[in-house]
Prior knowledge:
There is one protein chain. This protein is an alpha/beta fold and 364 residues long. The protein has one domain: Rossmann fold (3-Layer(aba) Sandwich), CATH 3.40.50. Helix content is 50%, strand content 6%. The protein contains 17 helices and 5 strands. The chain has helices at 17-26, 35-60, 82-90, 100-104, 113-123, 143-147, 157-160, 165-173, 178-198, 215-221, 234-252, 262-281, 294-297, 301-311, 322-327, 342-349, 351-356; strands at 72-75, 95-96, 203-207, 226-231, 289-293. Strands 2-3-1-4-5 form a 5-stranded parallel sheet, sandwiched between helices. Helix 11 (234-252) crosses helix 12. It starts with 16 loop residues before the first helix and ends in an 8-residue tail after the last helix. Mean pLDDT is 89; it is low at 1-5.
Amino acid sequence: MKMTDFLRPHILMGSNLIHFFRVVFKLNFSMKGSAIPRLFLSFIILVLFTPFRLIEAFLYLFAKREQVKQPIFIVGHFRSGTTYVHDALNELDTVVAPRMVDCLYPYLNKYFKFMLVPILKKALPETRLMDKMKVTWDSPQEEEFALSLMTFDTSVSFLYAPKSNSKQLNSSVLLIDERAKSKWLKAHLKFARKLQSMNKGKTLVFKSPSDTSRIKELLEIYPDAKFIHIVRNPIDVIPSTLNLYKKLLPEFSLQDESQIDLDEFVFSFYEQMMSKYLRTKGELNSTQLFELKYEEFVEQPIENLEKAFQQLNIPIDVYSLKPFFASRKSFSRNKFEMEKGLKASITSRCIEVFENYNYSSDNK
C-alpha cells in the first residue's frame, strides 16, 4: 500500500458526526490499521464541514417539500447493465438521477454544491475503479451511497464492515429486519424528497442493484413507482461481481477484507436477492415492471427502451438518446478469465436465473 493511500479520506467524511461515531461503534473498534489514519482525516474534514451542514439543515426547514411522483427504479444485480440504462435515462430532459455530489454529500448538496464541485473535480479519478467508465462530479450515481451516510442499514455497509456480511444481507438488502427496513425506507424518502426539491417537475430515476429485492418495500413509500429490471447471464455477472468487490473493498473497507469468504458472499447475495425478486415480480402488473435482457439491450437500446416506456405508460421520447448510444458503441467491456471450478459453481448455484431467463452456461 502506498503512503498516499493513508492520506485519502473515507467516504464517511460526507456523513455527520452522529453517523460517523455510530459506524465506529458498529465496528466494535475492529478497524484494520490502514483505516485508522483515513478515519481520522475524515473526522477532521467532517468537523470542518459541520457548520455548513447545520446551515443547510436550517435553510432546508423553509424549503417547500416536494412530493416524489412516479419515480423510476433501474434494478438488476451488480454488473448486469444497470449503470448503462441509468446513464442513458439521465440524458433525457425530463428525467434526473442523483449525481455523484448528491451521493457523497447528501447533507450539503442543496445549498453548498458550489463549494463541493471544485473539490470533487480535483479529487475524483477519471474512471471508475471496477471498469473503464468515465466519472465526474455530476455523473449519475447509486443513491445507496448517500443512504449509507445517513443510516448503517444499507448494502454499502458491507463495504465498510465486510465481516458482518450475512447480517447486512438480511437487514439491509432483503429487509427481513423490520427496524432496519423502517430506517432504510425513511432515509430513502428523505433523500428523494430533497433531490426532488432541487429538481422540481422532473422524474427521479434511481439505480441501486440492491433494490432488486426491495420492490415491495419501495412500493410502500412510492405506490406509483415504475421498475425496469435488467438481467444478464450469470456466467458474465458472477466473475465481474467478484472483480468489483476485489477493487472496491480495499478502498472502502474499514476491516480486514482478506478474512471473508468473498466467493461465498457473492453467491449467497446473488441467490437470495434474485430469488426474492423472482417471487415478487409475479405480484406486479405490466404497468409497474418491465424486464429486459442485457444482451438484447446492448444490441437495440432505443427499441428496448421504447418498449419499456410504452408498457409502463411513461410518456417519454427515447429517440433523443441516439447520440448517447452512438457514443457508447466503442466502449470496451471488461473480460475475465474463469477461475477453475467457478463455472461449475455458477451453473449449479444460479440455476434459478438460468431456467427463468433461458440462459446457457456455455455463454454462446
